[in-house]
Amino acid sequence: MAIEITLDVMLARRKVKSKDLAATIGITEQNLSLLKQGKVKGMRLSTLDAICRHLDCTPGDLLHYVPGEMPEDWDDERP
């Protein structure tokens, strides 16, 4: 995977439960779980903003670039 999501690490650092974050930012616990596992192809910037506001962090605290090939199912086309 080219982008690693470390939301679970930040939740642990901030001592915030997933269900509390999901309720606060207005997404389902299931969608938050998929996000934590890196099983999403994208995320709305408004969702990222809400997470960062609640956890008092930056996008760089949650997203890390990992060099390597993109998974086959990713659409790498640019707009």
CATH topology label: 434 Repressor (Amino-terminal Domain)
What structural class do helix, strand and pairing data support? Answer: mainly alpha
Task: Give the overall pLDDT as a whole number.
Answer: 89
Q: Give the helix level as a range of percent.
A: 40-55%
- How far apart are the termini? 21 Å
CATH class: Mainly Alpha
| Biggest β-sheet strands, sense, barrel | 2 strands, antiparallel
Count of helical segments?
5
Quaternary state reads single chain
Based on CA inertia axes, which overall geometry fits? globular
Give a description of the structure:
- By secondary structure, the protein is mainly alpha-helical.
- It has a single domain, classed as lambda repressor-like DNA-binding domains (434 Repressor (Amino-terminal Domain), Orthogonal Bundle), CATH 1.10.260.
- It is built from 5 helices and 2 strands, in the order E-H-H-H-H-H-E.
- It has a two-stranded antiparallel sheet.
Write the layout of secondary structure elements.
Blueprint: E1 3-5, H1 7-14, H2 18-25, H3 29-36, H4 45-55, H5 59-62, E2 63-65
Antiparallel strand pairs: 1-2
Please outline what is shown here:
The chain is mainly alpha-helical and 79 residues long. Helices cover 49% and strands 8% of the residues.
Spell out the key features of this protein:
mainly alpha; two-stranded antiparallel ribbon; 434 Repressor (Amino-terminal Domain); globular; 2 strands; 79 residues; single chain
